[in-house]
Task: structure prediction
Amino acid sequence: LAKTTQPISMDSYEGQEVNITCSHNNIATNDYITWYQQFPSQGPRFIIQGYKTKVTNEVASLFIPADRKSSTLSLPRVSLSDTAVYYCLVGLGSGYSTLTFGKGTMLLVSP
Amino acid sequence: NAGVTQTPKFQVLKTGQSMTLQCAQDMNHEYMSWYRQDPGMGLRLIHYSVGAGITDQGEVPNGYNVSRSTTEDFPLRLLSAAPSQTSVYFCASSSLGGGLRDEQFFGPGTRLTVL
Result:
């Protein structure tokens, strides 16, 4: 079971770039890395997924080093509406029952 | 498409009562799952299903039952509610057998309080 470690909270200001790092030392060979975003009183929402190197979409970028023991979610020029909890998810290597969300990182964006 | 729907949104039970949390999706997804979210604990997987007639346990299955008779529906049953089951419950679905290769779509959640 690939356990993840993220900072409990982060603070930023509008317009800044935010990088949230997730540690997953025992990631399995066939595991993917996925990030979700959750606003209060809502279900999580998929942001981005990757296996290695770099992935970019319209919302964020995901950087994965060669050893895959960590990953970094990068949010460019955050706004107040990016205030949310961000979850790093690693698993699937030995079956669907290994999916765990962990406690996530609470990002607070201030004006 | 309505996506993933859950009913009820709120529920209060007394200890020992039973109830069923409903979850439905209209995206023809094979994979469906139930999570619970407690303060400071993130989301924990309760049960999941990779297709009609196939279910399996997640991280915290005790006290919960599930069945999957159709692709669309995945109800979660509490046979004898306990205060420890007070939580917010989320249902999710995804295509292609589920898992991390496929985006999971979450419902709005059911907030359950057991007195």
Q: What stands out?
A: The longest strand of chain A covers residues 84-91. Chain A has no helices and nine strands.
